[in-house]
Amino acid sequence: MTPSQSINGALRKVPAWTVYIVGAVYAVWQFWRALNQIGPYLVEPINVLERAYGEVGLQLMVLGLLVTPLRKWTGVNLLKFRRAIGVTAFFFVLAHFLVFAILDVQSLGRVWTEIVKRPYVTVGMVSFMMMIPLVVTSNNLSVRKIGTAAWRKLHKLTYLAAILGVVHYLWLVKGFQIEPIVYAVVVAVLLLARVRKWKQVATDARGAA
Q1: pLDDT, tens digit (0-9, with 9 covering 90-100), for 67-95
Q2: With 60 as the cut, is the pLDDT of residue 29 above it?
């Protein structure tokens, strides 16, 4: 038995809803640490919590994009977790926004001012807005109602949302930091691989016609 088969065998025993439980527990734990100013939350807990939620959201977005390539390149199959990963990513990004809006700027008017005034906030908000139709349609009923082909086209927004999320992060950080650059490289590689696949599918379709 190969390592990937062993991993897949273990993953089959883990229900997909485990992702939601782990995500919720982690989010609450981080909030509790911020509330009590523990560890990294000793100084500027609101800003640190805002950043922590945003980073996890972006990490999960990238992980969601990695599901198909990971199965192709290594044989490890996370497909049954992909929907849960995407929905959990959205809720961490939502938590990131809520900490920013409610605990940081504390004013709807100031939220709008920040979105208009600061380009990195604008980009982040556009990414967040793109995730809303994705999470709303992340269910079997939506697939049946809008059709598989249209649903797949809509969910290509995942790549654009991830790109804008990375741009938001790169724009936000100060100085040279390797983590957002790693995300940018990973997303770029995944996007190029996906574009190549889309072109190949289009070519094959024209050939078959």
Answers
A1: 988 888 889 999 999 999 999 999 999 99
A2: yes
Q: How far apart are CA 9 and CA 187, in angstroms?
A: 28
Q: How is residue 52 written in tokens?
A: 């922590």
- Alpha-carbon span 41 to 115, nearest angstrom: 25
Residues 6+ apart with CB under 8 A from 16: 80, 81, 83, 84
Residue position matching structure tokens 């919720």: 24
C-alpha to C-alpha distances, 116 to 1, 87, 120, 183, nearest whole angstrom: 55, 27, 10, 26
Question: Which of 4-13, 54-63, 192-201 shows the highest mean pLDDT?
Answer: 54-63
Name which of 86, 96, 109, 97 is nearest 20 in CA terms.
Answer: 86
Per-residue CA distances from 133 to 69, 158, 168, 197 (Å): 24, 10, 20, 24
Which tokens sit at 29? 């734990």
> In sequence order, which residues have a C-beta less than 8 Å from that of residue 61 and are 6 or more positions away?
86, 89, 93, 158, 161, 162, 165
Angle, CA 76 vertex, CA 70 and CA 77 arms, to 5°: 90
